[in-house]
Amino acid sequence: MKDIYYVGYVDWEVRNFHGYSTHRGSSYNAYLVKGEKTVLIDTVKRPYFEYFLDKIKDICDPAEIDYLIMNHIEMDHSGSFPLIIKYLPNAEIIASVRGVDVLKSHFHQEVDAEVLDKIRAVKDGDTLEIGNGKKFTFVPIPMIHWPDSMVSFMTDNNGKNVLFSNDAFGQHIATTMRWDDENDLCEIMEEAEKYYANILLHLSGLIAKTLPVVGALPIDLICTSHGVCWRKYIPEILEKYRKWSAGEIEEKRVLIVYDTMWESTAKIAKALTKEIRHRGIPVKRFRLTHADYSDVITEAMKAKAILIGSPTLNNGLYPAVAEYLCYQKGLKPMNKVGLAFGSFGWGGGAVKEIIEQMKAAKIDVLDEKIEIKFVPKPEDLDFKEIVDKLIEKMG
Ligand code: FEO
């Protein structure tokens, strides 16, 4: 890119990002932009500071940097902030109004109050001209991903208009190729979908409101803070965000998640899978002790119906099911139909808890439920009627 340099770190090794499984690694993207003035946009996770500094030094003397824009203060982007500012004696630091507060809250022990007090707080629509036809406009995007988040939109009379979008439109993927069209689009979209499901899904209401504002900008390029940058498939990723934030389902499909102690709940899960498959409806099934919650919640976002099963243990839920329900509750998948199933020996309790938790998560739960004592008989596993009702409710 003309006048824009990548100074981020591609993390091939990371496989867990605060609980989110990153099977394909990730990256912490940062950029250096040169006009008449020089701008550094975001930093990287602290362990990779030296690499980040070396990349900057390959392009310019850090002392020549005039501005440091901090689009978001989560530590994957701000971890190197206290270290890099020691090399930027001439840089003005810029963040959103909330970003200034969060920088102070994070770094009061490492950065002098005098430095923190001088950070420039920008509001919606504030601008920064850096010469050579380049102008930044700052747009706060609160809660995408934290209250402090903002995007920096750079118009360039001599080049492309670039949205430095930070977390928005990111993907956790490590790659040597920076652009969407240089990579396998299926892999990128899969990771963008998983990223949305695990990080942004519960913020969909705010995203739906913000997206038209961002989408109205005359964007040529999107430079994200994770994964690849967008140049060819910008309309596609914007449309995906529109659909995901609206809770639109592309295809009627069913997700079955369960766990089992002595195989009775597994028998129910398998019989339900068979009955739904016979109706020609795609169905996926995960046993929670062997599944990755980050992958399962991605399937939950795409499914119309979520069927959750648990054996009763100590009058309540099997631990893996309880843990998954907690994760799902926080992420709030929208527009779902639910069904609870399980087995018990004497008192029961798990199915009741699944129903309560699904209702609390605003899932439209079937009145019918499946509860089987000890080991199911063949006739217990005839689910034609309940699957009819499920399909009717799915619409
Ligand atoms: Fe990539 Fe919210 O940090």
Provide keyphrases for this structure.
elongated, alpha/beta, Rossmann fold, 6-stranded parallel β-sheet, single chain, Metallo-beta-lactamase, Chain A, 6-stranded mixed β-sheet, 21 strands, binds MU-OXO-diiron, 13 helices, 395 residues
Average of the residue pLDDT scores = 97
* Biggest β-sheet strands, sense, barrel: 6 strands, mixed
Ligands? MU-OXO-diiron
Outline type: elongated
Describe this structure in words.
34% of the residues lie in helices and 23% in strands. The protein is of the alpha/beta class and 395 residues long. It folds into two domains: 4-246, Metallo-beta-lactamase, Chain A (4-Layer Sandwich); 254-394, Flavodoxin domain (Rossmann fold, 3-Layer(aba) Sandwich), CATH 3.40.50. The strands form five sheets. Strands 1-6-7-8-9-10 form a six-stranded mixed β-sheet. Strands 16, 17, 18, 19, 20 and 21 form a six-stranded parallel β-sheet that branches. A five-stranded mixed β-sheet has the order 11-12-13-14-15, with no helix packed on it. Strand 18 (305-311), helix 11 (319-331) and strand 19 (337-344) form a beta-alpha-beta unit. Helix 6 runs parallel beside helix 8 and helix 7 (204-215) runs antiparallel to helix 8 (234-246). The longest helix is centred in the middle third of the chain and has 16 residues, at 185-200. Bound molecules: MU-OXO-diiron. Residues 72, 74, 76-77, 145-146, 167, 225-226 line the site of MU-OXO-diiron.
